[in-house]
């Protein structure tokens, strides 16, 4: 799991932020679909539900929505900072290999998907499905990477093993390493860095504007006065992995953006993930449980989840309020993240 997040903003700052978001949406509108009503008024619950329905429909296609305006032409060479402390010069972006699913989403959405020659196992969206795998499990195979003859490789600090990355570099291929994206603020930073490394900075700015507008519209749909507590549970029943998210889980940032309170963080869990106990669940008292779809399936769906000790003693368990989203999307922190927020705003505030 990836870790890092910031503490929740005080209530006053949150209120100011919500007002600012609403004002931004009213003044600028929302690109590619909008978030206000036709008259420009604050979105109603019905508007939030409509956005969520559209988001679910788009996610069901498992495909990306590229930027408008055609394919950008990379302007190279460029020299960029790599998160492993190196300076990396990229001279050719004709054969791009992203070794991370979220990174691949950004590359494709920028309009450079026809230049991508392979994929990481976490790149599960439709456009990448037919590309050859360059990883096994979650480890990079240097031999597989080199066989694809990439002209630039995009990785992050979690990509490994280190020996494989070194072997790729020793073959003369530039490897740009990025910081992992673990909170909403990282989306813009990562998009900017990827676009700069591939010589299309203007496309990066355009994509950040689109994502920002979509996020603003989603957040503007948060019902006034609604602050449910949401617990993110990471489960893999077959492997006996049962964890509750806390500060830095990544999900805490999404929950906060959707106008809710991260139950794990609020109950004092200072680590990203803590083994689930009945006591921890009862203390967290979540109104809603958030999970990855495969994790929920691995414990037998909602019925099976209710049998996990402590679940039935929470408000979420009593009401069977469980929200699940596809594994490759929920914590991707990329161009599809606004769709995640649309769905969360609608489902976690539902009465």
TrEMBL record:
**Domain Fe/B12 periplasmic-binding: residue ranges:** 95-351
* Keyword Thylakoid found: no
Q: What InterPro entries does the record point to?
A: ABC_Transporter_SBP (IPR050902), ABC_transptr_periplasmic_BD (IPR002491)
Keywords attached to this Swiss-Prot or TrEMBL record, sorted alphabetically, are:
Signal
Entry's transmembrane regions: none
Per the record, the domain of life is: Bacteria
Please report which protein family the annotation says this sequence is part of. Answer: Belongs to the bacterial solute-binding protein 8 family.
The protein depicted here goes by the name ABC transporter substrate-binding protein
Q: What are the leading ranks of the lineage? A: Bacteria, Bacillati, Actinomycetota, Actinomycetes, Kitasatosporales
């Amino acid at each position: 799991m990836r870790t890092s997040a910031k503490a929740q903003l005080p209530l006053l700052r949150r209120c100011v932020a919500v007002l600012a978001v609403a004002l931004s949406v009213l003044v600028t509108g929302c690109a590619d679909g909008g978030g206000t009503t036709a008259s420009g008024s604050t979105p109603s619950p019905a508007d939030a539900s409509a956005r969520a329905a559209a988001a679910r429909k788009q996610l069901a296609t498992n495909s990306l929505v590229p930027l408008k305006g055609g394919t950008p032409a990379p302007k190279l060479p460029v020299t960029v900072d790599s998160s492993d402390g190196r300076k990396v010069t990229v001279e050719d972006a004709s054969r791009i290999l992203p070794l991370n699913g979220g990174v691949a989403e950004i590359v494709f959405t920028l309009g450079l998907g026809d230049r991508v020659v392979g994929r990481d196992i976490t790149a599960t969206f439709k456009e990448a499905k037919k590309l050859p795998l360059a990883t096994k499990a979650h480890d990079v195979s240097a031999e597989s990477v080199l066989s694809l003859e990439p002209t630039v490789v995009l990785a992050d600090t979690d990509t490994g093993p280190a020996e494989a990355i070194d072997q790729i570099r020793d073959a003369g291929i530039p490897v740009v390493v990025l910081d992992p994206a673990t909170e909403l603020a990282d989306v813009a930073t990562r998009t900017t860095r990827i676009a700069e490394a591939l010589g299309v900075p203007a496309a990066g700015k355009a994509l950040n504007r689109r994502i920002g507008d979509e996020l603003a519209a989603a957040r503007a749909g948060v019902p006034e006065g609604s602050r449910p507590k949401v617990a993110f549970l990471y489960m893999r029943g077959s492997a006996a992995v049962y964890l509750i998210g806390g500060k830095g889980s990544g999900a805490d940032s999404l929950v906060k953006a959707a106008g809710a309170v991260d139950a794990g963080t609020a109950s004092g869990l200072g680590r990203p993930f803590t083994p689930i106990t009945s006591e921890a669940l009862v203390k967290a008292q979540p109104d809603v449980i958030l999970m990855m779809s495969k994790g929920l399936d691995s414990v037998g769906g909602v019925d099976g989840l209710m049998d996990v000790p402590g679940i039935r003693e929470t408000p979420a368990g009593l009401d069977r309020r469980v929200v699940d989203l596809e594994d490759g999307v929920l914590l991707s922190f990329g161009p599809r993240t606004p769709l995640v927020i649309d769905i969360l705003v609608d489902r976690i505030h539902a009465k």
